[in-house]
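It is worth pausing here to work through a concrete case rather than discussing structure prediction in the abstract. The textbook approach is simple: state the sequence, then state the predicted structure, then interpret. We follow exactly that order.
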Amino acid sequence: MDSGKKKRLKRIFRHDQRTVIVPMDHGVTLGPVRGLVNMQAIIDQLLKGGVDAIVVHRGVAKKVDTERAGLIVHLSASTKLSPDPNYKIQVCSVDEAMRIGADAVSVHINVGAEQESKMLEKLGKVADECDWYGMPLLAMMYPRGAAIKNQHAVNVVAHAARLGAELGADVVKTNYTGSIETFKEVVRGCHVPVIIAGGPRVETTREILQMVQDSVKAGGAGLSIGRNVFQHENPTLMVKALSAIVHNNASIDKSLQILGETH
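Step two, the predicted structure:
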């Protein structure tokens, strides 16, 4: 890996080679959902919690102050209103992300979707540009499509993660497979750091904390969780609780204490 990528990744990953990222690109996909109406306000809350990096689109990236946190500019987009929301197209270049001040860029690939081939072609081109600029590439690799019966099955998740690494990603984000043993298979089969997605809102805080702890025990490099953080009643404390697990190997009970919860 070249020196440019190494320097930028240090702004996203701590010395323990783990990271707590909060993606907030949902405004494109879903609109101004709860928690993402005032972007600087939510970012300020996340910064107080010690977030390592955030993911936003170019328009937001130009206007907010992320202070010490890493800035990841998302290059992919589709909306829930589209006839094919699984088809992600590129809406920002690596060059533009560089000019905005990005520490990394991210792309979203739905493996198994009808337009998979076009998305993979774009991933390959973006990876080449990232190598040229010394820009780290985070690939969000999700098993989605008609042929995918279970988006969390270890065989499809491991395939999706490996696919991202094979095509040039420096970091891969994918689904958690539900157990430490199965997620170990995903990590072993991917030669770059693997971080987990949060998915839809969960019923209990303990559930999301347990998933994060188990993924780290399996060798995962952290998380990139959105709605379960920015829609939490206290995003600052939620980031602190997640960071305690990822960076300090805290117990679930200790993390719940940070949140003021005991259940």
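Step three, interpretation. The chain has one domain: 3-258. The CA atoms of residues 197 and 224 lie 5 Å apart.
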